[in-house]
């Protein structure tokens, strides 16, 4: 951690300055739509609070009877529309479109937790390089009332690949071989940048949305002294699961949550560890198989968290959907482990941009374990070696986000969590150069401009309109080439329907059958996504 502690005092002062600016009121100047190397992208210039371009999404249709029509449509297209608004009225006859969508609000499925993204070291480092007004703009873009309205956040426990190097919260001084009492445990280094950023994100959501963000945390690897390999790469905990090293690892989790809570960051959830099946061996990874994870939860982590932080939800797996349902079956078949488990966390990477469909495995898992929720805990674009890093303006990457979110939801996921909420123009920093893409890219050289990608708008078509507590309802999309569709009832009893057309060549004329002789006659352009929000009790 020494490399990141250099200049700690100056970084802490910088954090205080940035935090003071976090709640500043920005001038509402629209951003510019420009042509990027891979398509249209929103470019925002922001030097001061008084001279700052920001993305302000249109208001969400509410319960007011004064709003026009029976429903509002929000549309984003490859051609350039970004949340364009139109209004419509319920018809008594359908338009005869070949494609039709039947909605049945009497069929109820899972309740939504929410949507969000990760606040990593890289995110904090990049934002710290920007003008203070950009920090405010980005937080409002994601967590504010006029933005995506995120209600879920993730953060790594100590370092991950999106850090400047490997560090833990329990580094040992020279000559000390172990620290079972965690005497040397500290999260003080996070006060430089990451903790202030998380606190500001939570405060923005509370102030502007009136919601508490459902934060969860994941560890990539333990301190080196706990590992057999004396390494954080493809490592294993020393000894057997009932032994002192596994106990120390469980205590490390408990201590993290206690320290963060004392510093103003409460948590909703915890995963048992990021990608226990392993990564490419290039960066931090603690290896578990399902049997070891089961025993760790049963003997160490579950009891320790239940004693110290009983409200924190515990999720197993936090790895590829392709490992389901077998992984969940193995862990949850043991009632002494299952009683500590609340849900299952899943990643999308093994699906290779969803060219392999593993969505059905979520439904299988739900059928086997209906009392455990499923949450998409990580996804990003630009991770494949043949297309690595940012692609400024890529529409296809936004479509893939929407396709994945929609189909996860239709297969019982309670929410969806993006990886880094923003990165620099190269997709970092990342200490092993494992760069990826992000919905928002910051020009850390100029320090006063940032880009809002199609991925952001696709994500916001869900997160802005489907709040926590919404319930998925019955939907059936039919026709020669059925459109991807999902539907929800919000806590305000408003129907929300998301329709995705990934066809680049043509639009679709379609209708929705709401039952009782009520129809919505509509069209969706080529390569487009629409969110329909209805007035209450329709």
Set down the secondary structure blueprint:
Elements: H1 2-5, H2 8-21, E1 32-36, E2 39-48, E3 51-52, E4 71-77, E5 84-88, E6 99-111, E7 114-118, H3 121-128, H4 132-143, E8 152-157, H5 194-209, E9 214-219, H6 244-262, E10 269-271, H7 290-308, E11 313-320, H8 326-332, H9 335-338, E12 343-347, H10 359-368, E13 373-378, H11 395-410, E14 413-420, E15 422-424, E16 440-442, E17 449-452, H12 454-463, E18 471-478, E19 484-489, E20 495-501, E21 508-515, E22 518-524, E23 528-534
Parallel strand pairs: 6-21, 7-8, 7-14, 8-9, 9-10, 10-11, 11-12, 12-13, 13-14, 15-16
Antiparallel strand pairs: 1-2, 2-3, 2-17, 4-5, 4-23, 6-18, 16-17, 18-19, 19-20, 20-23, 21-22
Helix pairs in contact: 6-7, 7-8, 11-12
What's a quick, concise take on this entry?
This protein has 538 residues and is of the alpha/beta class. 26% of the residues lie in helices and 26% in strands.
Note down, in words, how this protein is organized.
With 538 residues, the protein is an alpha/beta fold. It is 26% helix and 26% strand. It has helices spanning 2-5, 8-21, 121-128, 132-143, 194-209, 244-262, 290-308, 326-332, 335-338, 359-368, 395-410, 454-463; strands at 32-36, 39-48, 51-52, 71-77, 84-88, 99-111, 114-118, 152-157, 214-219, 269-271, 313-320, 343-347, 373-378, 413-420, 422-424, 440-442, 449-452, 471-478, 484-489, 495-501, 508-515, 518-524, 528-534. The strands form three sheets. A nine-stranded mixed β-sheet has the order 5-4-23-20-19-18-6-21-22, with helices on one face. The chain has an eight-stranded parallel beta barrel with strand order 7-8-9-10-11-12-13-14, surrounded by five helices. Strands 1, 2, 3, 15, 16 and 17 form a six-stranded mixed β-sheet that branches. A hairpin with a 6-residue loop joins strand 4 (71-77) and strand 5 (84-88). The longest helix has 19 residues, at 244-262. It is globular and about 75 Å long. Residues 1-21 have low confidence and may be disordered.
């Amino acid at each position: 951690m020494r490399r990141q502690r250099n200049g700690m005092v100056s970084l802490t002062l910088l954090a205080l300055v940035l935090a003071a600016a976090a709640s500043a009121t920005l001038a509402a100047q629209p951003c510019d739509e420009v042509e990027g190397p891979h398509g249209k992208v929103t470019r925002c210039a922001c030097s001061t609070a008084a001279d700052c371009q920001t993305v302000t999404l249109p208001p969400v249709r509410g319960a007011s009877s004064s709003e026009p029509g029976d429903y509002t449509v929000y549309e984003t297209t490859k051609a350039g529309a970004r949340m364009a608004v139109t209004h419509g009225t319920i018809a008594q006859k359908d338009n005869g479109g070949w494609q039709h969508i039947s909605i049945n609000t009497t069929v109820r499925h899972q309740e939504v937790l929410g949507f969000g993204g990760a606040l990593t070291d890289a995110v904090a480092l990049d934002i710290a390089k920007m003008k203070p007004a950009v920090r405010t703009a980005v937080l409002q873009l994601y967590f504010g009332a006029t933005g995506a309205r995120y209600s879920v956040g993730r953060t790594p426990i100590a370092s991950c690949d999106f850090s400047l190097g490997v560090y833990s919260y329990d580094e040992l001084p020279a000559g000390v071989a172990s620290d079972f009492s965690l005497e040397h445990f500290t999260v003080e280094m996070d006060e430089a940048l990451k903790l202030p950023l998380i606190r500001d994100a939570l405060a923005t959501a509370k102030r502007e949305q009136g919601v508490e963000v459902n934060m969860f945390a994941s560890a990539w690897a333990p301190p080196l002294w706990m590992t057999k390999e004396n390494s954080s790469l493809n490592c294993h905990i020393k000894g057997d699961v009932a032994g002192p090293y596994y106990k120390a690892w469980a205590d490390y989790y408990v201590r993290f949550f206690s320290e963060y809570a004392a510093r103003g960051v409460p948590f909703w959830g915890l995963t048992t560890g990021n990608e226990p099946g392993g990564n490419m061996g290039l960066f931090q990874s603690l290896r578990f198989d399902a049997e070891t994870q089961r025993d760790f939860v049963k003997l160490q982590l579950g009891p320790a968290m239940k004693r110290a932080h009983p409200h924190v939800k515990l999720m197993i797996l936090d790895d590829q959907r392709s490992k389901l349902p077998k992984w969940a079956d193995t862990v949850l078949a043991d009632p002494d482990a299952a009683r500590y488990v609340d849900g299952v966390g899943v990643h999308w990477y093994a699906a290779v941009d969803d060219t392999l469909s593993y969505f059905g495995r979520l439904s299988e898992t739900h059928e086997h374990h209906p009392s455990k929720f499923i949450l998409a805990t990580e996804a990003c674009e630009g991770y494949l070696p043949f297309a690595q890093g940012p692609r400024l303006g890529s529409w296809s990457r936004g479509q893939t986000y929407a396709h994945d979110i929609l189909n996860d939801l239709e297969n019982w996921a309670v929410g969806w969590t993006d990886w880094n909420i923003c990165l620099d123009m190269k997709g970092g920093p990342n200490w092993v150069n494992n760069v990826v893409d992000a919905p928002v890219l910051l020009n850390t050289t100029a320090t006063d401009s940032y880009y809002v990608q199609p991925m952001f708008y696709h994500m916001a078509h869900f997160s802005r309109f489907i709040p926590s507590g919404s319930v998925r309802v019955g939907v059936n999309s039919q026709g020669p080439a059925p459109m991807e569709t999902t539907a929800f009832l919000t806590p305000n009893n408003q129907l929300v329907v998301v329709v995705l057309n990934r066809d680049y060549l043509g639009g679709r004329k379609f209708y929705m059958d709401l039952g009782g002789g009520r129809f919505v006659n509509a069209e969706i352009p080529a390569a487009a996504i629409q969110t329909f929000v209805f007035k209450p009790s329709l």
